[in-house]
Structures are given as C-alpha cells and as structure tokens.
Amino acid sequence: xxxxxCIAIAMVLCVHVALACTQIPTTTASGMVDSHDTxxxxxRSVVQQLVxxxxxxxxxxxxxxxxxxxxxxxxxxxxVFSIVTTDSVELASTVEQYNARQEELNGKLGLxxxxxxxxxxxxxxxxxxxxxxxxxxK
Length: 138
Description:
Blueprint: H1 3-21, E1 26-27, E2 33-34, H2 38-51, E3 62-67, E4 77-82, H3 88-109, E5 122-126, E6 129-133
Antiparallel strand pairs: 1-2, 3-4, 5-6
Helix pairs in contact: 2-3
C-alpha cells in the first residue's frame, strides 16, 4: 500500500468518525426541527405551560396561533388556546421567540421540508376544552 493511499484511507476514516459523533437534527412529520436545542426545548415548555388546559365555555373563547417554522416558511402547526386561561400577549411573545429560534436553526442547519401549507384547523369548544377540528375529520 502506497503512502498516498494510506493517507486517503486515514482521511476517509476521520470523516466517518467525525460524522458519527455529530448530532444530526431531524425534522418531524410536521416540518418542525427536532434538534434537542435547549433554547427551543425551554421555549416549548413555556408555551405548553401558557396554553395549559385551554378550557372554555364557548368557542368564542378559543384561538389559534401558528407554532414552529417550516424551512420553506409558514407555521409548522397551530396551537389551540383559550383566552380565558391564557395570557394571549405573553403566549404570542413566547411563540414568536420559539418560531424565530426555529427559523434560525432551519437556516443554520440547511433544513428543507415539503413546503406544504399547513391549514389552520376550525375550532370548537368540546367538553369545556378548546379543540381543533381538522378538515376531513369526522
């Protein structure tokens, strides 16, 4: 084996080892980054706490907010919340931070998605909880 061939093999092995040690983020079915980014995880937890149970007496108390950022643009999904139990201003601010962080990661990591538009669901107040009603649902 020539020295040049040994060096080439060593370089290929180094690249493989480096790639094996790198955490490669994935994208969920909805197009959201699953990178185990601590800032994203922390913001997601705050959003979940703010949304809480989303209790309602009437559908007029229910709202939607775009959550997450698809690499092609637009929200990855929609969250349903109640204006009775959720501070809408705080939720909007926290979701804005979450979406901005996800957009940043999408660009930094070069992620792509299906670019499909995520349609917002209709809303209903079912069993005193704000509930999304997706098109085609029976």
